[in-house]
Specification:
heterodimer; A: mainly beta; 9% helix; globular; disordered N terminus; B: mainly beta; Porin; eight-stranded antiparallel barrel; two-stranded antiparallel sheet; 55% strand
Amino acid sequence: MNRLPGLLFVALALALSLGGCDSGDTCGPGQKCDCHDGSDCYMSCSGSGCNETCENQVHCGGVCDDNCTFACHDMNDCTTSCGANCDAECHNVVSCGAIIGPNSHYSCHDITRCGVTAGDSSVIDCQNVPTCEVVCQGQCQVNCTGTDTCRIYCGGPNADPRDCGNGGDCEC
Amino acid sequence: MSAKFGAVAVLAGALASFTARPAAAQNTIQKYGARPSYGVELEPHLALGWIDPPGYGTGQGLGLGGRATFEIVGHGFIPSINNSVGIGVGLDYIHYYGDGTGPRGTCTQFVDAPAGTHVCTEVNGGHNGDDTDYLWIPVVLQWNFWLARRWSVFGELGAALRLQDMKDLEFSPLISWAGGRFHVTDNTTLTLRLGIPFVLTPYVTFGVSFLL
């Protein structure tokens, strides 16, 4: 019986030291933050230069700051919210939505709906997207290919939409 | 991670066999009062998460915790057998190591965007990769059955608060455990507690109880 506390202490110490072997990765700048093969997954990454990816989900979304890269594919819906100078892509998804900061690039292709609120001096590409709508908060460029509806709202969501048509390029 | 749990299980088994005596296993279940007299059971323990916890944690977990159980009914719900009832309050910290599929945060704010889309702009959790830390605070009713001099078993039913990622407080309205004690001495036991079903109570504990 006198040995019991000592043995328990050894067991606890061993268990905790084994647990300490895990790398404990985090979604920080310079690290890849990835969701895959699940139902719902939402990621957040603070700081400049985050890298978020998402694939084979039902719902997925990423929130990140400036200079962020984001890519998602093969799911029902995917959303992106990022700061300035971000580069995001969404493809083979039913619905892609994004709020991107100034000087950013967003690419939608092979999806059903793509909706983007874009900061100044951003570029949005819609390819093989039946419905593509973009609200530009400043100057921006929208490139549509293989779209049924491609609209751009210059200045805000309440502005009169401009129909970019199939294959047209629009600018604010 | 399974190797870690295997190591803990082997240690637990070794510990039990090391301390076991060929001592009397007299049946006490029908002898009212043939059990340790105590007012509170204090139980430090290891906590092992076998499956994904509720919320955004994933994978298996390992941690430490404790339970204080206060006897409230010395002669329990069934008069003809040796049983008693207590109220238990616990605190368990578990680090979940993740299953490699992502951080699994939850979106707390969606903003309308063009084309009828809704964009997530705020996320709870989802920033620690696969790893998450949980703090569980269970409160349970414990029903004890004093089977033999060396053995007792119990069932527990209650609810728990859980602090996900150590910052988001959630409520688990129904949790339950089944457990057993090996009485090393009359008032010191090795105690194993299994969450049943795992989907409601996704962790088990192993520790030492002091019946005081």
